[in-house]
């Protein structure tokens, strides 16, 4: 694809299958959800899974795609080239994969980078949006801390609310590495958040206005009275190639 890259969107997580639906894999789940949402919006059949390429040289699964919107007559109104990334490194080495990808695609402006990651300090179902700042804004999340140590803080963070454990006896390390639960509508809240975050990304793709998306989509927004029931947080993709 020869056109310029508009955005690089990275979802943080652990690549091992046993972590697939855990809270710490919120970023991975979002990337798979987003890949499917883009494919369906472009008219691809649900059976045609979005294709990621496992690039071991980049330490990441990569999907190079167009994010488009159309009028009722099918004509394209907006089109954006977006690189979707799932690092294959350990969480605390995510920055090295991000750096490799940016260099490979010739993206020198880190403001084109959006990183989606789980956030303990944001309520379930809600989104926090950040950019810039200092390292203290990333403290506590090893993936974000490592990215900052490699490329600095001038990138956008979509922090996906997972909240903290209700029980004070539950260790944080245990909490983040266990799956989202059906009880307390936790899965439903996260499903709502996936949709909300996709809307925020699309809005940002069009307007490139961070203040606008913070106002429209950030965590002070009220949750809907009725949530879509989520029976799974697995959004299948086709991963192959080197």
Automatic annotation (TrEMBL):
Provenance organism: Rhizophagus irregularis (strain DAOM 197198w)
Pfam assignment, any one: Pept_tRNA_hydro
Lineage: Eukaryota, Fungi, Fungi incertae sedis, Mucoromycota, Glomeromycotina
GO molecular function annotations of the record: peptidyl-tRNA hydrolase activity; tRNA binding
Keywords: Hydrolase, RNA-binding, tRNA-binding
Stated name of the protein: Peptidyl-tRNA hydrolase
InterPro entries: Pept_tRNA_hydro, Pept_tRNA_hydro_CS, Pept_tRNA_hydro_sf
Catalytic activity: an N-acyl-L-alpha-aminoacyl-tRNA + H2O = an N-acyl-L-amino acid + a tRNA + H(+)
Family per record: Belongs to the PTH family.
The protein's Enzyme Commission number: 3.1.1.29
Superkingdom classification of source: Eukaryota
């Amino acid at each position: 694809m020869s056109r310029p890259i508009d955005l690089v969107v990275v979802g943080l997580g652990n690549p091992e299958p046993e972590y697939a639906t855990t809270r710490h894999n919120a970023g991975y789940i979002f990337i798979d959800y987003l890949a499917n949402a883009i494919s369906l919006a472009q008219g691809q059949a649900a059976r045609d899974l979005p294709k990621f390429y496992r690039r071991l040289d980049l330490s990441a699964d990569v999907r190079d795609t167009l994010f488009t919107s159309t009028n009722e007559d099918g004509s394209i109104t907006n089109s954006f080239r977006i690189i979707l990334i799932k690092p294959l490194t350990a969480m605390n080495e995510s920055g090295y994969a991000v750096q490799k990808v940016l260099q490979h695609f010739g993206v020198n402006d880190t403001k084109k980078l959006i990183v989606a990651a789980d956030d303990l300090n944001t309520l379930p179902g809600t989104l926090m949006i950040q950019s810039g700042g200092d390292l203290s804004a990333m403290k506590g999340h090893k993936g974000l801390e490592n990215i900052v140590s490699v490329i600095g803080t001038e990138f956008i963070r979509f922090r996906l609310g997972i909240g903290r454990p209700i029980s004070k006896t539950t260790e944080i390390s245990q909490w983040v590495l266990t799956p989202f639960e059906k009880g307390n509508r936790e899965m439903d809240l996260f499903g709502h958040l996936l949709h909300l975050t996709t809307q925020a990304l699309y809005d940002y793709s069009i307007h490139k206005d961070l203040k606008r998306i913070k106002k429209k989509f950030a965590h002070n927004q009220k949750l809907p009275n009725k949530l879509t029931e989520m029976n799974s947080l697995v959004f299948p993709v086709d991963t192959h190639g080197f």
